[in-house]
Amino acid sequence: MNERSARVRWEQRTQQPLLGLAVVFAVAYAVPIVWPAAGQDVRALCTAAEWVVWGVFALDYLVRLALAKRRWEFVRTRWLDLAAVLLPLLQPMRLLRLVSTLLLVGQRARLATQIRLTTYVVGAVVALLMFGSLAVLSVERESPDGNIKTMGDALWWSFTTMTTVGYGDHAPTTGLGRVIAVGLMLSGIALLGVVTANIAAWFIARFESDDVEERRQTAAIEALAEEVRALRAEVAALTGASGKVPRPAPRPGVAAEEP
Known about the structure:
By secondary structure, the chain is an all-alpha fold. The chain is about 75% helix and about 0% strand. The chain has helices spanning about 1-35, 40-65, 70-75, 80-90, 95-110, 115-140, 150-160, 175-240. This is Potassium channel family protein. Keywords: Coiled coil, Ion channel, Ion transport, Membrane, Transmembrane, Transmembrane helix, Transport.
């Protein structure tokens, strides 16, 4: 129990700093794509920032693993965290670092009790929209047959892809761009499902709350009616035993009336 408490405390304390580092990663990832004319020093700085952020997330995973009492169970239940940590090591690609960082941020954000599902879904939609646009622009801009050449084109393509509209005016032509498109489509369908389920659950909860309140009021009315029936029966019993209706007791300070 103490081991689990130590891990939970660590996760709670590091949640906000890690989310801040995720913002740093987002900026470092976006700058070379949005600013193609950036110098080599700027690109090197952005790449270093991306690896530093990934390294901090990897260190966070190792610390949580060390604090876990049942480490094998921790690895088995947090396999997505492990995959996100190991993913950039398989092939040093910026896209893999992007995917792994998004996975790690998503896992840590779900630990926050103060972040409601709607806020999380909105944040996930915005993050996927922006990072999907940046990722497809980075691989399609240099393609001879590509038609996604500007950030505006990339944003439009990402929005239509996530919503599964697919106008077809812009489409990836490279293999990696199509892989990004598949991931974006699947993510968009999943997020739309979450939004729909969340709205349905809200309506169901409201209806259940109304039903509970109605049942509570009905039970109170039935209890009150039962008490009234019991009082009537008691009055009838007293009347039958004495042959007259019992008079109410006089209030203090008021003289009793003579019959």
